[in-house]
Amino acid sequence: MALLALPDHDLARRDVAAWLAGAPVRGADNRPVPVAAWERAARGAGVVAGLDQWRSRLARRAEDLEADAELHDRDDENGWRAERLRREATHARDLAGFVARLAVDLRPGSRGDSWRGLATWCRGLVRAYLGGEGLRDRWPDDERAAAQRIDAAIERLGDLDAVDPNPSPAAFRRALELQLADDLGRHGSFGHGVLVGSVRLAVGLELDRVVVVGLAEGSFPARRRDDPLLPDRVRAVAGPDLPTRAELVHDEHRALLAVLAASTHTTFTFPRGDLRRRAERAPSRWLLDTCEAADGTRPSAEDLDRETGDWLREVPSFVAGLRASSFPAHAQEYDVRALLDRAEAGQAITGSSILAERPALARAVALLEGRLSDRFTRFDGNLATDGDLRGAVIPSPADPQEVTSATRLETWAGCPHAYFVRHVLRVDPVEDPEEQYRLSALTRGSMIHAVLDRWLGAILEADAVPAPGVDWSEDDRIRLLDLAEAEADRLQARGLVGRSVYWHRDRQVVLHDLMQFSVFDRDQRAAHGTAPVATELSFGMPDDPVPPVTITLPGGRDIRLRGAIDRVDRAHGGSLLVIDYKTGRSDAFAKLSADDPVPGGTHLQLVLYALAARRVLDRPDAPAEGAYWFVTDRGGFTPAGYPVTPEVEQMALTVVERIVDGIGTGVFPLHPARPGWRLFPDCLYCEPDGLGLAHQYADWERHRADPAVAPYLDVCGDDDD
Ligand code: SF4
Question: Does residue 100 have its Cβ closer than 6 Å to ligand 1?
């Protein structure tokens, strides 16, 4: 049914992804499709819905990936990236072809004239995307039986031409849905056993025992949302054939009452809270009705347990429920109960014979024990003293074949676990295009950097840089605006700017920031007496003629550094001003000073880039100053920095050395931000659902006292604020 429903939302990416993940779908080559890789390709391309987006955005994504792959071809250390990027480009192209074929196949065409024609079309779809009879031999029994039921239901619909010679595809789909809903499949003889389904399904049946689960407001009855296409006020005009949403709720209530009246024993369950959202739930009004009918008084939601009779049983927790049940429902419950018995008898659960028999359970117990303890264990990122790397080696930035960067090292200082996931396990987060309502901070930053680089690059090439303090010409400003407009159009065409309703304003804001930049820049050049000499000064990058810059740490080891310095200016006397553009707020840089040049191991760029700029520009003895320039209204158009003196250099490199040691020895604790209100999570590795990291923060609070975390605390400090 999910396949037939794909055109409903114009081939929405979420629908296509859910269908691919929920069925053994095959491609044109009759092989299973790579579901996860295709999901990543569609998200990376920014596809939301519509065949046009699938075609154009995936094609552009493939082009971009191949262009990136060419850059990485020349990178000996990261050659694997080129290969991976090419594979991703192939996936993007394959997916575009698959969806184009799907869009054609989902149109019944001339076959839509009759039930027989639609049945033939539908059978063809099943065969094309799920495989024919021959393939089903390898399926599990229940899936094979389900496929046979689908075939039979389609076949039956093919015989309906005598009833209605001109069915619509929608009518065919509804009929098929009904056929499949009625045919749940069963084991054993009719009239015995357990029937699972909605309460409507049980109307008219005689049942020995009914268990209705989830009687909470919002679940049963479900939250009533008006249909945006057919709101209740429109349905009301259409008369009784089109029930309103409100009437559907009454139907559900009547079905519940009918089922209760027909059963001998009834059990209701009500979840008091939503553990994931840490919120309480209100009991369903229908549950309170039943309480009132039984006891004569209607309890309030809070007093449900106090004011009702002894027919109400409270289950305080999962464990309490497990302890109270007379017989475990399955092997897992049995195992957990056995472990609970040991714990309650004061015995260590690690001595249980069950753990020896069930290695998976033993590993789960070890993990939970580790995480709940005060120790910093391998389950919390301690690969230094508690790890079992089974021969694997964590690459150290000081290894001669490694090339690192300032931002990588800063990542470890911010959260070592994020470094581990991203740079050791190489997990790249993928944005969800549907959730991107606004221009993301990342895209905004890239756009501003790209425009400023192109603009300044052209001026440097034309040798038309104004003297310190001299304003930019009108032509320069017009050129800056043109470049900004062109980049905005390019991002829009690639679907990277969020919803159009917000993009209109976001675009104006970014263009305004870029125009303001020329004024800020003039003032800064006047204040420092400098003029730009380089933009995007890169070293050690994949396509770079300039090799990585070697930096010697205080202990004598070398690290090789790559990077791209946003801009370097030079003063009359020859001193260098190394500039890093920032497009966010400046609050986090408030503590930055020559006395504390890399607070908490972050903001390493100024010192490392100053050292690199001297080397790349062949001015080893030039005095250098580093500055972050906050180049947006929200950043306040302000600079923050300091002169990079030998003392500053020594302080910063000492911290870099500690970071290098922490990575090389395998210290990767999770260091989540203190829980508090945030619009969006900054990092999704531990909270892909964005519901918060309170648990992880509590773990961090316990683990930080372990001496094995000390190498990290030496870098980040002891203060989480
Ligand atoms: S979600 Fe937080 S704790 Fe987890 S890796 Fe990212 S920054 Fe670290």
Answer: no
> Residue whose CA is closest, atom 2 of ligand 1?
672
Query: Is the distance from CB of 255 to CB of 203 less than 8 angstroms?
Result: yes
Q: Has residue 191 been placed in a domain?
A: no
- Reported as a single tens digit per residue, the pLDDT across 347-367 is 888 888 889 888 899 999 999
Query: Do residues 245 and 311 lie in contact, with contact meaning Cβ atoms separated by under 8 Å?
Result: no
- Given 496, 521, 546, the domain boundary residue is 521
Q: How many helices (H) and strands (E) does the chain have?
A: 25, 11
Ranges of the chain with pLDDT below 50: none
SS3 of 152, please? helix
672 lines ligand 1 (CB under 6 A): yes
Decide: helix, strand or coil at residue 669: coil
Q: What is the pLDDT of residues 398-450, one digit of tens each?
A: 999 999 999 999 999 999 999 999 999 888 877 676 667 788 888 899 999 99
Size of the chain in residues: 721
Residues of the domain holding 491? 435-521
Looking at the fold, whether 399 and 355 belong to one and the same domain comes out as no
ipTM: 0.98
Is residue 382 a part of any domain in this protein? Answer: no
- The rounded distance, in Å, linking the Cα atoms of 490 and 488 is 5
Domain-embedded: residue 659: yes
Instruction: Tell me the CA distances in angstroms from 29 to 32, 133, 233, 290, one per residue in order.
Output: 9, 16, 50, 57
Nearest CA to ligand 1 atom 6: 683
The answer to whether 195 and 201 have CB atoms below 8 angstroms apart is yes
Q: What is the pLDDT of residue 472?
A: 93
Q: Given this model, what pLDDT does residue 721 score?
A: 58
Any ligand 1 atom below 6 A from CB of 711: no
Q: Is 668 among the domain residues?
A: yes
Distance 408 CA to ligand 1 centre (A): 15
> Which segments of 158-275 does DSSP mark as H helices, in order?
169-182, 232-238, 245-262
pLDDT at 308: 58
